[in-house]
Design a protein that fits this description.
418 residues
Length: 418
């Protein structure tokens, strides 16, 4: 019986992706990096709030991290379609490690004000803008197609396990050693990931994009593919509004913790992000067991509706621990949308366009919450956080209803040829 249970885990569950050696190395090394990123992000949010006590500045810093990706991510996606993705990954990891280490040194020296912090956030955002499209495009190069859903889900599971562990680690680091130590910890975890990249190789290499064209041509080709695809255009539309107006709360947690829940920002942010990580970890392990387009599409719509429900409960509550519970279920829903949506995109896109299409996917998921946070943070300065954010949820609900009305067309296109 025990042997049968182990065999099921190895061949049918989300963990089946770990059968592939290079994927396992990349993901385990990436787990340490992911934990460090969340320590960095908690430190960045708390440091910003301590320097300014401003919702607008929380949005500005979040946007400065994400905005460079608007220009850089599509370029990085094009490079990922034209050149060796593993070589690009090594160069990018080295750059982002140097930026984070420099921020740690300046912070420990006491030389950082809000403007210096803004400059480092921009540099960090530039490096991260190159990184995300390359890493997203690499996943199908490390696992076979039949295990792609498990690979995407396990990547999300480990990322969100790090999102649970990282903020929990951030609380004592910040309390004992301060934000400089948090940034230094992140730089060390980037080093671990960089070393891990030297022990893997890509096994399912995509066809390279045609040579001899301009960057504008490559970018237009990727954007045209998304906006004219009969199914993906609706998935991308829903992703834009969900990222901006549902997931924006993640960037506003210090303000939400203090003003809505009357809970200290240092402790509140760490607890809420850990709650997100816990829910996302559970959701990732659950959804990775699905492997067909039809099941993933149903999962996508269920998660979209439940996400709207739980974010409404979260924003309507004034009790911190009830809000934290809502965040767990909200996180299950949002990660379910992301995994199922990404699976449908990755399964449908042509290999020579993968880098560019996934760069736009990553851009939405990275920059969308920051843009939403800037807008909602600015409005919150006049009317508080609750009602502007609830209004944004209402707008997103209308978009979601429109996309659900197209579910027949989406399913027909995605299952064509199966």
């Amino acid at each position: 019986m025990f042997r049968s249970a182990v065999e099921i885990l190895k061949t049918r569950s989300t963990l089946r992706a770990l059968r592939h050696r290079y994927f396992a190395i990349e993901e385990i090394a990436g787990f340490f990096s992911g934990a460090g990123v969340w320590v960095y992000r908690v430190g960045l949010q708390v440091f910003t709030w301590e320097l300014t006590h401003s919702g607008v500045w929380l949005g500005i810093i979040a946007l400065s991290e994400a905005a460079p990706g608007i220009l850089i991510a599509p370029i990085a996606g094009t490079l990922a379609d034209r050149y060796d993705r593993l070589v690009l990954a090594k160069f990018i990891q080295f750059a982002i490690m140097l930026v984070t280490a420099a921020l740690a040194v300046f912070t420990l020296m006491g030389s950082v004000d809000i403007w210096v912090l803004l400059g480092f956030a921009l540099l960090h955002g530039m490096a991260a803008g190159f990184w995300q499209p390359v890493r997203l495009a690499m996943v199908p190069n490390l696992v076979p197609k039949e295990d792609l859903s498990a690979g995407i889900a396990l990547h999300s599971a480990l990322f969100n396990l790090s999102r649970f562990i990282g903020p929990a680690s951030a609380a004592p680091i910040l309390a004992i050693w301060g934000t400089g130590a948090a940034f230094a910890f992140n730089a060390f975890t980037y080093l671990i990931f960089l070393v891990g990249l030297f022990f893997i190789k890509l096994v399912n290499v995509d066809k390279k994009a045609q040579a001899g064209q301009t960057m504008v041509f490559y970018l237009k080709q990727g954007l045209f593919y998304i906006t004219n695809h009969p199914a993906l255009k609706f998935i991308f539309l829903n992703a834009i509004f969900a990222a901006m107006f549902i997931r924006a709360y993640m960037e506003l947690l210090p303000g939400l913790s203090e003003t809505m829940f009357h809970f200290d920002a240092k402790e509140g942010v760490a607890f809420l992000i850990s709650a997100m990580g816990l829910g996302a970890l559970f959701g990732s392990l659950l959804i990775g067991n699905f492997s067909t387009i039809k099941l993933m599409l149903r999962c996508y719509f269920v998660c979209a509706v439940s996400g709207l429900f739980f974010v409404t409960l979260f924003l309507s509550s004034g009790a911190f621990w009830f809000g934290a519970l809502c965040v767990v279920f909200l996180s299950i829903s949002t990660v379910g949308m992301n995994i199922s949506g990404q699976f449908m995109v990755q399964s449908s896109v042509r290999g020579e366009l993968r880098g560019r299409v996934m760069s736009f996917w990553g851009l939405i998921n990275r920059s969308g919450p920051a843009f939403g946070a800037l807008l909602l943070g600015w409005i919150a300065g006049y009317w508080g956080f609750r009602w502007p954010m609830l209004s944004a949820v209402a707008v997103t609900s209308l978009v979601c209803c429109y996309v659900i009305s197209k579910r027949g067309q989406i399913e027909k296109e995605l299952t064509k040829g199966q």
